[in-house]
Amino acid sequence: MLQDSALVPRDALVRPPPNRFTHVVRERQPYYYGARKSKQPDGELAKGARVVLMVYDNGKTCRVVNRQGLYVLTAFAGLRRLEAR
Fold first, then answer.
1. Which residues of the chain have pLDDT under 70?
2. What's the start-to-end Cα distance of the chain, in Å?
3. Which residues contact 15 (CB under 8 A, 6 or more apart)?
4. CA Rg value for the chain
5. C-alpha angle with apex 32: 28 to 36, nearest 5 degrees?
6. Which of 72, 56, 59 minimizes the C-alpha distance to 17?
7. pTM
8. How far from chain centre, in Å, is Cα 65?
9. Sheet harboring 61-66: ordered strands across?
10. If you ran DSSP here, which 8-state letter would residue 47 be given?
11. Domains in the chain, ordered, with CATH?
């Protein structure tokens, strides 16, 4: 049996994963490993998941890293900025 990490492309993992976050996912939404959206998502970010916004160029999509270290493409509109503490 393969570990989950064997299914994730190497360039889609950040190690160590972050422990501080900039945004939260508003509602469950798909994510993609590639540079563009494919027909089938590679997974979903859960509602309430905290992520770090890594790349955003004022378009519809952005790149984020979640608490497991997944570096993925997802919809920017589905994120809400966390308040600074």
1. 1-6, 38, 85
2. 43
3. 69
4. 12
5. 125
6. 72
7. 0.86
8. 5
9. 71-75, 61-66, 50-56, 23-25, 79-81
10. T
11. 4-81 (2.30.30)
